[in-house]
Write a structure and sequence with these properties.
This protein is of the alpha+beta class and 507 residues long. Helices cover 35% and strands 19% of the residues. It has helices at 18-30, 59-66, 70-76, 113-122, 134-139, 147-152, 168-181, 228-233, 297-305, 351-364, 373-399, 406-413, 418-430, 443-452, 469-488, 493-500; strands spanning 10-14, 37-42, 80-82, 84-88, 96-100, 163-165, 185-188, 191-196, 203-208, 213-215, 218-221, 238-240, 249-256, 265-270, 273-279, 283-290, 317-320, 324-326, 330-331, 334-336, 342-343. A hairpin with a 2-residue loop joins β14 and β15. The structure holds flavin-adenine dinucleotide. Flavin-adenine dinucleotide binds at residues 15-20, 41-43, 46-49, 51-55, 168, 190-191, 222-224, 226, 228, 250, 252, 287, 319, 321, 338-340, 346, 349, 351-352.
């Protein structure tokens, strides 16, 4: 029998960090009021986590859907542009490789270019695979322009993407402006209690410490690591992945701006973890992610402070985390996003992306007030797959490194998920990467980390041998020359930022 729909009327977002304000913006965009009332509660006293400053290209879709103006957005967040991640010392000390946002060029005779590169390498060509990557060609010269500019110029090396670095606090503020302008109501206050409806077990209302009571139909838990609704109130357990990703702490510190502004994030492996470097217009963000089983907090701080490229401009901040996720991301009438849903270390800047895909999924599967559990089940299945695929990609960075220190030895021998073991086996046997459901990172990303860490397949695709070697060498040399030429003609990233989108707020 057909049932009358009972649309969601009142949405309550608990928490106003990146997750809360992203949710507020997207819901306000897709559920324009007055059809649904959207309220967000945040506590100035508690504040936000204040990190989360590097992104992946999917964020452009988010900005596009909201209709944000790129220049205004970058200017308002002290932002810079990101073409990928430079990895230093990961496969072994001295090793440098680049995970760029793009592929290594078109297929050649239907075969992905890395197979052709593998053949040339076997024949003694020492050039790195990055030579076929436009993001690398630009990034290694500290140059940047959006691909549309190159396309408009009639050149064809434009198959690359980019993302942003920004100040997390300013990002939340920027999104808040967007959401409030579209009718989202912000309530400042501390949530003291979460009331459950005794009959359904659903969350009925948030009770603030000052006595205000906020009722809702759908609650979005964006309360960060506190996970007030999904964890503390509904008791959804946490699935702990620390045995596969042993880093559990980070120390973050800002240093003075360092020119030139690199159009990429840098990740440098350290004895017990790794260090990030994120260039912003007003400062550089730095952090050391490490495993407390393999180093002390004092040593971790010392390592970070000894490896800054500008004067320190903030006090070191310590952060603790447990890698993993909630066993259910959506339970009853609560959907958790951001750190309340789970966290994996920021090695590939995946967290903001996972907030975004979670929101897109929620909008696709927006429930009625009857909250049919089948919808939540599907949401949880897809989101669980997404987390697992990102987890496997992160583990790959560690599990085949040849670094000598105890953390890295541990990572070589620790048990890894079957899906990752399968991926590595297929890669080593064939040079192909089998992608699974809900992969965030596509084949060129996996290829980049495999090859970058020195994990090479035993063979390349045999169809490659159909191409005469002189054609392959000629084509390769042409592409390398074209990329170098195109990259040289791009503006320096520093100049592009300073001229096109200089910060609108004083540092
Ligand atoms: C070391 C580190 C580095 C990271 N780097 C990156 C990165 O480079 N890229 C990336 O994509 N992600 C990164 N992340 C993840 C990223 O920071 C988060 O995913 C993102 O900031 C979202 O956080 P959040 O909004 O879930 O939580 P928070 O920022 O912690 O916000 C929680 C909100 O809930 C509110 N709140 C909590 N309790 C209450 C209460 N009782 N009453 C009222 N309000 C309450 C708080 O006031 C706050 O507004 C990093 C995370 C860590 C730990």
């Amino acid at each position: 029998m057909e049932m009358a729909a009972t649309p969601i009327k009142r949405i309550v977002i608990a928490g106003g960090g990146t997750a809360g304000w992203m949710a507020a913006c997207l819901l306000a965009r897709f559920l324009p009021q007055p059809h649904a009332e959207i309220r967000l509660v945040e506590s100035d006293e508690i504040g936000t986590i204040g990190v989360g400053e590097a992104t992946v290209p999917l964020i452009q879709q988010f900005n596009g859907v909201l209709g944000l103006d790129e220049k205004a957005f970058v200017a308002a967040t002290q932002g810079t542009f990101k073409l990928g991640i430079q990895y230093r010392d990961w496969g072994e000390p001295g090793n440098v490789h680049f995970h760029g946002f793009g592929d290594y060029g078109d297929t050649i005779q239907g075969i992905a270019p890395h197979h052709h590169w593998l053949k040339l390498r076997r024949l003694g060509d020492p050039s790195p695979i990055e030579d076929w990557s436009m993001p690398f060609a630009a990034a290694s010269r500290d140059r940047f322009a959006p691909p549309q500019m190159i396309e408009a110029d009639g050149r064809d090396s434009a198959a690359y993407k980019y993302a942003y670095h920004f100040d997390a606090g300013l990002y939340a503020r920027y999104l808040r402006g967007y959401a409030e302008a579209r009718g989202v109501t912000r309530l400042e206050g501390k949530i003291g209690e979460v009331e459950l409806d005794p009959a359904s077990g659903h969350v009925a209302a948030l009770r603030l410490e000052d006595g205000r009571r906020i009722e809702g139909d759908l609650f979005i838990d964006c309360t960060g690591f506190a996970a007030l609704l999904i964890g503390k109130t509904l008791g959804v357990p946490y699935v702990d992945w620390s045995d596969m990703l042993p880093c559990d702490r980070a120390v973050a510190v800002a240093s003075a701006r360092h020119d030139p502004l690199t159009p990429y994030t840098r990740s440098t492996a350290r004895a017990a973890g790794w260090q990030w470097r994120i260039p912003l217009q007003h400062r550089t963000g730095n952090g050391h992610v490490y495993s407390s089983a393999f180093t002390s907090d004092d040593e971790a701080i010392e390592t970070l402070l000894a490896n800054l490229d500008g004067a320190r401009v903030s006090e070191p901040r310590m952060l603790r985390f447990t890698t993993g996720h909630r066993a259910k991301f959506w339970h009853r009438n609560v959907v958790a996003l951001g750190l309340a849903a789970g966290f994996m270390e920021p090695l590939e800047s995946s967290s903001i992306q996972i907030i975004q895909t979670g929101l897109a999924r929620l909008i696709d599967y927006l429930p009625d007030r009857d909250f049919d559990p089948a919808i939540a089940d599907e949401y949880n299945r897809l989101t669980g797959n997404e987390y697992a695929r990102v987890r496997d990609f992160l583990i790959l960075h560690y599990c085949r490194s040849r670094r000598p220190e105890p953390l890295w030895q541990h990572c070589r021998t620790m048990p890894i998920p079957d899906a990752l073991r399968h991926k590595i086996a297929v890669w080593e046997a064939s040079g192909h990467v089998p992608l699974l459901s809900e992969e965030s990172y596509q084949e060129p990303s996996w290829v980049s980390i495999f090859i970058g860490n020195g994990v090479l397949p035993r063979r390349y695709d045999p169809i490659v041998d159909q191409l005469p070697i002189e054609h392959l060498r000629g084509g390769m040399n042409q592409r390398r020359a074209a990329l170098a030429r195109d990259a040289e003609r791009l503006p320096l990233h520093t100049l592009f930022v300073d001229r096109v989108c200089p910060a609108t707020l004083a540092a």
